[in-house]
Write a structure and sequence with these properties.
CATH topology: A middle domain of Talin 1
Largest sheet: 2 strands, antiparallel
Distance between the termini: 24 Å
Number of strands: 2
Strand content: under 5%
Structural class: mainly alpha
Number of helices: 11
CATH superfamily: NCX, central ion-binding region
CATH class: Mainly Alpha
CATH architecture: Up-down Bundle
Helix content: over 70%
């Protein structure tokens, strides 16, 4: 147990430093190329910070652990939407580019609509599993998402946000991004693998492990990256990473996982699906209705409280007498 705790701490150290260099590298490239930090956050940073989720999901799919696959993806997204967003806003109120967020928040909401549609398909099928067809649909969704953002980036040069970004040459920035992504993957592995060992020793249920320990562990890269971006006032990377990670978790990660091995989408995760749909709807309304561009601490508190209530409910529900 002590060895696992030491390795978890070591993983935290790697994650913190890796997130720092990733934000610096990607932010510098955005500045030099005069493109939106948010596009960088939606693509490069989001893919990099989603590496732990992808690694865990692939391992789980190969071993036939459907609950861990679904729990990891949904739990990570709930953490992104409520926990990380709430914490970052409390640290530093976010000034958002409403023109960009209006579109991306709608795409996020649509992604969860598609997820519910896939869930309904699974429950009507004879095999009761999400198969290759659904996996291909999700992968196509990922390709369309990335293509859309790069086209939007080229057409609209006004999306670049003002913030404190280090001026680093392109080659060094690229190296920093690669180091950051690799570090996040390695650090995430240390934290997640050893957290799972501890959780199993404590005899925690598979669903509770997947949606708490594993999803929180794989959320660490997003958390560290977003907190770092928040402190550096890089709202584009912060919001881009939060939205992009959620979309990539559903489209890319779940899509790849399904292609590797069809999975069962348990009815036990209905609460998580509806919570994500509701949260993304609130985020979309927030992005499209509010006249002020700043997301205040009060809003961050509401999202954080929702996560705390959900987390406590989950723990109490799964405690074995």
């Amino acid at each position: 147990m002590i060895l696992e705790l030491i390795l978890i701490i070591f993983g935290f150290i790697i994650l913190i430093k890796s997130a720092d260099v990733l934000v610096d590298g990607s932010g510098s490239i955005a500045k030099k190329l005069k493109i939106s930090e948010m596009v960088i956050g939606l693509t490069i940073v989001a893919i990099g910070t989603s590496a732990p989720e992808l690694s865990v999901s692939i391992k789980s799919a190969i071993n036939g652990y459907s609950d861990i696959v679904i729990g990891n993806v949904l739990g990570s997204n709930i953490g992104n939407l409520f926990l990380i967003f709430g914490i970052c806003v409390l640290i530093n109120p976010i000034k958002m580019n409403k023109q960009f967020i209006k579109t991306e928040s709608k795409i996020l909401f649509l992604t969860y609509i598609i997820l519910i549609f896939i869930y309904l398909i699974e429950n009507k099928s004879a095999q009761k599993v999400i198969g290759i067809k659904e996996g291909i649909i999700l992968i196509i969704g990922f390709i369309l998402f990335v293509t859309f953002n790069f086209i939007k980036m080229k057409r609209d040069k006004t999306l670049t946000l003002e913030s404190e970004i280090k001026d680093i040459n392109v080659w060094k920035s690229t190296i920093l991004i690669i180091i950051g992504i690799l570090g996040l993957k390695i650090g995430g592995d240390f934290v997640v693998d050893n957290a799972v060992i501890i959780a199993e020793k404590l005899n925690i249920s598979e669903k509770l492990i997947s949606i708490t320990v594993i999803s929180l562990g794989t959320n660490l890269p997003e958390l560290i990256t977003c907190v770092t971006a928040s402190k550096k006032n890089q709202a584009g990377i912060l919001l881009g990473n939060l939205i992009g990670s959620q979309i990539l978790n559903i489209t890319l990660i779940l899509g790849i996982t399904i292609l590797i091995r069809p999975i069962n989408f348990s009815r036990e995760y209905l609460l998580e699906i509806y919570l994500l749909l509701t949260g993304s709807f609130l985020f979309m309304v927030l992005s499209n209705v509010r006249k002020k561009e700043e997301i205040t601490k009060q809003i961050g508190t509401v999202f954080l409280l929702i996560y705390i209530i959900y987390f406590l409910y989950l723990i109490l529900k799964n405690i074995k007498p």
